[in-house]
């Protein structure tokens, strides 16, 4: 009944194959293009001197107020469209223009490193428990 | 579900849960952890995260699912680690929306300016409604106890509201804060041992004096013998050998009794030194008087100050505390110490029976 948790991903991770089809993600990016007749939008973000694009399918969130050049946050499922790469089928599309992107990235990294740390610790704790 | 499933035997006894500060707080856990916490076998509705007893949580997340009923909303909240159902009851103000024209007539009356309670209430109702009525994609903050219904975990919201977060400042702050909370509180193993092993000798003595003091506060005893209060200290003694070694209890039996007597003796000595109790007569029969409840002593002290303040020597400044002390010792009891007298003087002054003229002189008007 409830959808799966949408985990934060960076825009440059979506196309790199790090996320599986059907997985729920939340991604931020600047809206660079919106084609209402095809329900397609494109978010973009700069990372490591490269521009990364995320294709978004907006059928479920229409109509929405599109501001080209504004920051958006999208929640949705990864879909492999025929032929033209990975696409996020949006469940939620929020305009978050004015967001401190650097701070948001830091917060995402912080959360990830926390989970990484914790898994490490749990792994450590599990090992001696097995030994006894 | 790889959450550490706890052995029921390892569960901390419910008596000690209150010692964990996290127990009475709204824990800001990740939804994933809320869904994976193990439920207590002793008390359903209590959960354990990392041995911390938890029953109410505080969550911030995006609404990704919504269902409305007459009495409540059911929101699915996604914080990026998991999705949980939140049962949010509508309050009466919200339900009133069915007849919004009720206060319509009064509007025009108060519109000339000034405070109109009806319009203000209407504004409040609208504000509340806009805060409680969320759509998919909006941010919800919810606090409340965790419940399991039909094998599904949910939050019974005691407070919930829409968070206006256009530039994600609240979400980012939350994302930065929660890992710190985990590191500093939730992921640290709880210390629920009733007595610290290190300084148990010191702490049990101060606990003993506090126990007796509390007893005096609650019960208006004016006199007692040591064996009257001995039972009060019993729990302090019996908990010690248990923590040390549970299987040595039969051996510890007689010595526990001696420990108890020794503890009581020391505690009474401290109380005497502090002036809380005193012995009017030093005899074989150990009778202690509770200074605060001893009306005879109060009357004696009051009389001394009243009489001596009339004497020419003390008329101007009042009686010095040491003079009062020696007079009390002569006329009332030789064993009253200065600390006890100070307590009496303080309480007399609080009642305005006497007046202090300097920090050590007292008089009566």
UniProtKB/TrEMBL annotation, chain A:
It holds the Pfam family Ten1_2. InterPro entries: NA-bd_OB-fold, Ten1_animal_plant. It is found in: Chromosome, Telomere; Nucleus. It comes from the Eukaryota. One of its GO terms (cellular component) is CST complex. GO terms for biological process: negative regulation of telomere maintenance via telomerase. GO terms for molecular function: single-stranded DNA binding; telomerase inhibitor activity; telomeric DNA binding. Its main location: nucleus. Keywords: Chromosome, DNA-binding, Nucleus, Telomere. Belongs to the TEN1 family. This is CST complex subunit TEN1. It comes from Perca flavescens.
UniProtKB/TrEMBL annotation, chain B:
It comes from the Eukaryota. GO terms for molecular function: single-stranded telomeric DNA binding. Component of the CST complex. Residues 44-95 form the CST complex subunit Stn1 N-terminal domain. The keyword Lipoprotein does not apply. It comes from Perca flavescens (American yellow perch). It is found in: Chromosome, Telomere; Nucleus. Keywords: Chromosome, DNA-binding, Nucleus, Telomere. GO terms for cellular component: CST complex. Residues 203-365 form the Stn1 C-terminal domain. GO terms for biological process: telomere capping; telomere maintenance via telomere lengthening. This is CST complex subunit STN1. CDD domains: hOBFC1_like. PANTHER family: CST COMPLEX SUBUNIT STN1, REPLICATION PROTEIN A-RELATED. Component of the CST complex. The CST complex binds single-stranded DNA with high affinity in a sequence-independent manner, while isolated subunits bind DNA with low affinity by themselves. Pfam families: Stn1, STN1_2.
């Amino acid at each position: 009944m409830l959808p799966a948790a949408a985990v934060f991903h960076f825009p440059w991770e979506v196309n790199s194959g790090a996320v599986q089809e059907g997985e729920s993600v939340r991604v931020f990016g600047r809206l660079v293009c919106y084609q209402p007749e095809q329900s397609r939008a494109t978010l973009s973000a700069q990372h490591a001197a490269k521009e990364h694009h995320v294709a978004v399918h907006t059928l479920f969130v229409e109509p929405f107020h599109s501001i080209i050049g504004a920051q958006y946050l999208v929640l949705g499922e990864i879909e492999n469209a025929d032929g033209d790469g990975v696409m996020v089928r949006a469940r939620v599309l929020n305009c978050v223009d004015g967001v401190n992107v650097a701070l948001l990235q830091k917060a995402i990294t912080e959360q990830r490193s926390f989970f990484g740390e914790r898994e490490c610790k749990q792994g450590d704790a599990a090992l001696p428990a097995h030994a006894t | 579900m790889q959450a550490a499933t706890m052995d029921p035997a390892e569960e901390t006894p419910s008596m000690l849960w209150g010692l964990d500060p996290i127990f009475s707080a709204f824990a800001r856990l990740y939804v994933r952890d809320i869904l994976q916490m193990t439920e207590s076998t002793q008390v359903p509705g209590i959960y354990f995260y990392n041995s911390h007893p938890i029953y109410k949580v505080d969550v911030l997340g995006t609404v990704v699912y919504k269902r409305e009923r007459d009495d409540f909303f059911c929101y699915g909240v996604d914080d990026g680690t998991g999705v949980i159902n939140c049962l949010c009851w509508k309050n009466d103000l919200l339900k009133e929306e069915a007849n919004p024209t009720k206060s319509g007539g009064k509007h025009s009356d108060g519109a000339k300016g000034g405070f109109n309670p009806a319009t203000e209430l209407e504004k409040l109702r609208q504000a509340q409604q806009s805060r409680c009525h969320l759509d998919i994609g909006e941010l919800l903050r919810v606090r409340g106890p965790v419940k399991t219904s039909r094998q599904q975990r949910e939050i019974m919201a005691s407070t919930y509201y829409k968070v206006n977060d256009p530039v994600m400042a609240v979400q980012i702050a939350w994302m930065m804060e929660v890992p710190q909370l985990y590191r500093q509180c939730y992921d640290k193993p709880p210390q629920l041992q009733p007595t610290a092993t290190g300084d148990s000798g010191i702490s049990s003595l101060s606990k003993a004096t506090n126990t007796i003091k509390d007893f005096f506060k609650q019960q208006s005893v004016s006199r007692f013998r040591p064996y009257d209060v001995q039972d009060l200290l019993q729990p302090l003694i019996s908990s010690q050998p248990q923590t040390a070694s549970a299987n040595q209890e039969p051996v510890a039996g007689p010595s526990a009794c001696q420990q108890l007597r020794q503890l009581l003796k020391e505690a009474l000595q401290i109380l005497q030194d502090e002036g809380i109790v005193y012995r009017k007569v030093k005899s074989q029969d150990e009778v202690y008087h509770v200074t605060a409840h001893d009306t005879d002593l109060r009357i004696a002290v009051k009389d001394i100050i009243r009489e001596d303040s009339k004497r020419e020597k003390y008329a101007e400044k009042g009686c010095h505390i040491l003079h009062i002390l020696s007079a009390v010792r002569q006329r009332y009891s030789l064993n009253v110490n200065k600390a006890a007298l100070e307590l009496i003087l303080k309480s007399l002054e609080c009642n305005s029976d006497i007046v202090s003229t300097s920090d050590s002189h007292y008089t009566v008007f």
